[in-house]
Amino acid sequence: MLNNIENINGILKLSFSPFYDLRGNLLKIYQKETFKNIFKDIEEIYISSSKKAVIRGLHFQIGKKAQDKYIYCISGALLDISVDLRPDGNFGNICVEELKGGDPIILGIPGTFAHGVIILEENTTFMNMSPTPYSPGDERGIRWDSLGIKIPFQHPIVSEKDNSLPPLDLVLKGLKNL
C-alpha cells in the first residue's frame, strides 16, 4: 500500500507499507490502478546485480526517447545519483539518495535527469522499471567522477563505456546550447 509521496527537486520518493504476517512480508511495489497518475505504463523492467564498488552510469536518453526510471533496491545497498537536466528546473543539481534492500522505497527519476548508481555492498540487486524502452542511439551520459561525489572505496569497477563519457560541465554546456 502506498503511504507517502515526497518530491525531492523533481524526483519522487514513494514509501510503501508492507503486509506482515507469521510467514514474513509482502511488498506490492506496482499496481496499475494505484499508480496510473504517478507512473506511465511500464514498458520494460530489468534487474541488475552488482559487486561492491561497481559504478553504473550516469546515463540519459534524449528527446522523445527520454526514460523515466523507477528504482527499487531488492538487496544490498546503493547510492542512487541523479543530475537534473531540465533547462527550466534545477539545471545541474545533483541528488544523492541511499537505497537499502528491502526498504519500502521506490525512487521515480524523470527522463529529464541523468541517472546512475554506486554499489555499496556485495551482491546488491536492484530493479529498474521504465515506460520507455532503451534506445542505444539516443543514449548519452556523464562521467561518474566529474560530479564531485566522494565514493567510499579506492578502486571502483566501471565499464569502459562509462569511463569514456564526457564530464558534467561539458554535458551541461552542450545542453544549454540546444
From TrEMBL:
<feature type="site" description="Participates in a stacking interaction with the thymidine ring of dTDP-4-oxo-6-deoxyglucose">
    <location>
        <position position="134"/>
    </location>
</feature>
<comment type="function">
    <text>Catalyzes the epimerization of the C3' and C5'positions of dTDP-6-deoxy-D-xylo-4-hexulose, forming dTDP-6-deoxy-L-lyxo-4-hexulose.</text>
</comment>
<dbReference type="GO" id="GO:0000271">
    <property type="term" value="P:polysaccharide biosynthetic process"/>
</dbReference>
<dbReference type="GO" id="GO:0005829">
    <property type="term" value="C:cytosol"/>
</dbReference>
<dbReference type="Pfam" id="PF00908">
    <property type="entry name" value="dTDP_sugar_isom"/>
</dbReference>
<dbReference type="InterPro" id="IPR011051">
    <property type="entry name" value="RmlC_Cupin_sf"/>
</dbReference>
<dbReference type="InterPro" id="IPR000888">
    <property type="entry name" value="RmlC-like"/>
</dbReference>
<dbReference type="GO" id="GO:0008830">
    <property type="term" value="F:dTDP-4-dehydrorhamnose 3,5-epimerase activity"/>
</dbReference>
<dbReference type="InterPro" id="IPR014710">
    <property type="entry name" value="RmlC-like_jellyroll"/>
</dbReference>
<protein>
    <recommendedName>
        <fullName>dTDP-4-dehydrorhamnose 3,5-epimerase</fullName>
        <ecNumber>5.1.3.13</ecNumber>
    </recommendedName>
</protein>
